[in-house]
Write a structure and sequence with these properties.
With 288 residues, chain A is of the alpha/beta class. Chain A has ten helices and ten strands. In chain A, the strands form three sheets. In chain A, strands 7-6-5-8-9 form a five-stranded parallel sheet, with helices on both faces. Chain A is globular and about 90 Å long. Chain B is α/β, with parallel strands linked by helices and 317 residues long. Helix content of chain B is 47%, strand content 10%. At the A-B interface, helix 1 of A face loops of B.
Chain lengths: 288, 317
Amino acid sequence: MSDRVSVAKTYKLYIDGKFPRSESGRTYPVTDSVGGFLANASHASRKDVRDAVSAARKAFGGWSGATAYNRGQVLYRVAEMLEGRREQFAAEVSACEGVPTAEAMSTVDTAVDRWVWYAGWTDKIASVLGAANPVAGPYFSFTVPEPTGIAAVLAPQSSSLLGLVSVLAPVVATGCTAVVVSSADRPLPAITLSEVLATSDVPGGVVNVLTGRADELGPWLASHADVNAVDPTGASPGARVDVAQQASGTVKRVLTVPGDEPDWTRRPDISRLRHYLEAKTVWHPKGT
Amino acid sequence: MATASSPAAFADATRDETSLSRFLQGLPGVDQVGVEARAASLGTRSIKKTAKLWAIDTAISMVDLTTLEGADTRGKVRSLAAKARRPDPDRPDTPPVAAVCVYPDMAATAVEALAGTGIGVASVATAFPSGRSSREVKLADVALAVDAGATEVDMVIDRGAFLEGRYGDVFDEIRAVKQACGDAHLKVILETGELATYDNVRRASWLGLLAGGDFIKTSTGKVSPAATLPVTHVMLQAVRDWYDATGELRGVKPAGGIRSTKDALRYLVAVHEVAGEEWLTPELFRFGASSLLSDLVLQRRTQHDGHYSGPDYVAVD
């Protein structure tokens, strides 16, 4: 029997619930940790950034308006789908990051747990960050957290799945919509995650995944007036300065991130959720 | 049939109903595949930098800012008028639009709000959008608009009569409306979405031109499909042919369904390539649109600022 020729894949972007090619037509080869060819990925351009942001804006009303309980259910469903693709994710993480299969498998499990952890926060975060404020007058005063808007997320470059989930899940859990630029050299788990999102109940446009260079796309995302928050984790130190400068033209939340990639296996806290929420305080007259 | 103002070149065609019918039926058929392919290929043309800026400004100055809703209020018309005068208040160099397009009973409000600005007031008339009423009612509708001070009248043709082949009736009606318009410009809405074929679009275009319409307009915006590029191509060919035969310049107005700057630029390319450069002016080409203006303003900002803008920064109606 002759050896079968395997199908070499050219993956596309994930924008507005669809899988379009990059507007630029560019692709780049993705290799494993020792330089073997894995697949081709689309090399996103600033036009793709533009399209992804308008898709995210279009999806924002529906996603932020959904009840927290409903968002939680949708995100649990994503976790189920992640779990269903456990082997595929493990193989990709192992190939991209050059770790043994057992370690990759444990990374995938942590990533699924991380997603579930954030899914659980959807209907609880308001009780933690919101408040009934004591005021000196005949009023009720409430503070409620509301989603910031569109978040541009430059995903970590080394941790291709767990890092990605750790930066993306808090965005969608709060009700924000996301434009994610995946790890450039290790994009396969992000691509598979977009296939998971497309086949779970997440509305199109809530998460948009671009594969390409964070340093190239980051400044365009940061200068885009319709983007409300930026997470520069995946940008190089030089590009982070650029991102911060470009973001200063508008009122935009720029997440402060450590110089090196943190240890993503550490227990998360709610600081990322807090970053994508705005406090709204309402005064309401109290009947006497 | 009145023939007084038909150009000499077409005196024969408009002599009586039979010859009008023969003339319209004798127009060469439209190559459907060809016109669609040509429209699609012109649509791929890329326009950048200064040409794009020029095109955006030109497109803004060609917009007939339209509100034709049952829920229109005088307040809404006034706010539309304010937007027409200064589409982007933060950037005073943004050109004003060509006209504001409203229902006849709102024309007076629009005229008052736009006094002294040079922006036209277009009013739809003749039992818009269906056109299903008697001649008297249609002419009274036109009179209402003209008396209120509308400078442009957008009439709908009787599509029923056209599809039945009663070209003479349609012709006479356009004539009568043209007379009732006085000094106001007449735009003839063909409602191409109901005409079924490109051949019919070509016939209706010629009918509108023969009867004296200053503009031929694709649609009311109430029927889908509204304006499409191929249909606009056919109509642009008609005004071009009309110019070649008579030396008169007539305009075209696609309306409905044009929402993005990208779409608008495709239309401008078509105008330039099919009709000619002299049509790239608000006197001869208009966009009937409501949400298009916001996108044009957004894209204009993107070009000037060097970064993308968003709907938070312009008045989106």
